[in-house]
Amino acid sequence: MKIIIDDKIPYIRGVFEPFAEVCYLSGAATTAEIAHNADALITRTRTICNQKLLENSTVKFIATATIGYDHIDTEWCKSAGIEWTNAPGCNSSSVEQYVLAAILYQAREKGLILKGKTLGVVGVGNVGSKVARVGQLLGMKVLLNDPPRERTEGEGIFTSLDHILEEADIITLHVPLQHEGPDKTFHLANRDFFKKLKRNPIFINTCRGEVTNATALKEAIEKERISGAIIDCWENEPHLDQELMRMVDIATPHIAGYSRDGKANGTTMCVQAISRFFKLGIDNWNAEATEAPANPIITLEENESDLLKLVTQAVLTTYPIWKDYEQLLHSPEAFEKQRGDYPVRREYRAYTIKGGNAEARSVLKELGFKIEA
Predict the structure, then answer these.
(1) pLDDT for residue 283
(2) Measuring CA to CA, which of 56, 276, 279, 302 is 20 to 30 A from 322?
(3) Ranges of H-type helices in 303-357
(4) Are residues 251 and 245 in contact, defined by beta-carbon separation less than 8 angstroms?
(5) Are 143 and 163 in contact (CB under 8 A)?
């Protein structure tokens, strides 16, 4: 048995060696010649799993350690008898951390009061649901748009995209990339999308670059249809639009989901899936992100009454998002290297809060921080 594993996937070395020949390769080095006699691939989004890579190979199963799976030609794989799995929700808390850090940073820099503002969440799956909860914890009005869920669950909690475009002060996208069909999301944020905006919102994209039309976004910034933009995903990665990068408020190299905790979850889901498929007997194996942050204790002011200030201090201590922007701005040509060598952060559960008022401690506990008694 032979398994090819992307060499950027953590916590996995040594797991399959008792069962198989294991090759650790970069996404770019995983060629048709290499994959020809493999039984399984454990991969990320940088390996395009399609007919060109897999035709006439012995590959039976693909596991991607990512939420997204648009790098897998699922229809062709089905026709070729190749099964596959992704890792839904594995890094949802990491993306939640990124979006909250971005919103709080913007609020601090622009002097915004978030309580009472309207947050529009487009795509309410594993990630969008967590982002919506964060908005509610901060006292924001939250609007949800998810046509597939609405068709299944009824109108209930959902609203139209047009309503969000009219009412939201912040719009954040969390949709899969769909090129065709009733739920097409390719260039969802296009010229018409931005023309319908009424409140000059902050715009955030952390899902897929192709969901946003870069030309339309630049036009929206130039015409001040939006008051800010946070972009983690780009069309034509890793060759991002550098003009757009310089125009937005925060630009990062597709690392919103890059927490150690999220990566451990993705690795766990892949290992368990491979074990079940090939009956290896390690179905309950778990990766654990054990690396402690440099400063795991966050001390807040006891007498500070401003909830937003205290939450901002705590969240931005776990993730100073502007540092990733400064690095990308300095070396945009190193997009792929920055992504591949990212100094992966820890999520809230790795931190303990000391001090702060009762309201802040309650909110931070809901977010997942440990609270010192």
Answers:
(1) 97
(2) 302
(3) 307-318, 321-330, 335-340
(4) yes
(5) yes
Chain segment 223-273, per-residue pLDDT in tens: 999 999 999 999 999 999 999 999 999 999 999 999 999 999 999 999 999
Q: How many angstroms separate the CA atoms of 143 and 353, rounded?
A: 30
Q: What is the mean pLDDT of the chain?
A: 96
Residues 6 or more apart in contact with residue 155 via CB below 8 angstroms: none
- Catalytic residue chosen out of the listed positions 208, 225, 339, 345: 208
Distance (Å, whole) CA 319 – CA 324: 9
What is the distance between the alpha carbons of residues 301 and 51, in angstroms, rounded to a whole number?
Answer: 58
Angle made by CA atoms 242, 245, 250, in degrees to the nearest 5: 160
Q: Tell me, what's the pLDDT at 344?
A: 83
Q: Are strands 170-173 and 228-231 parallel, antiparallel or unpaired?
A: unpaired
Catalytic residue (choose from 225, 254, 339, 361): 254
| DSSP H or E segment with residue 85 | strand 83-85
- φ, ψ for residue 169 (rounded to 5)? -95, -20
Catalytic residue from among 150, 166, 219, 237:
237
At how many degrees (to 10) do helices 307-318 and 92-110 cross? 130
CB 132 within 8 A of CB 124: yes
Residue 237 annotated among the catalytic residues of the structure:
yes
pTM, two decimals, is 0.89
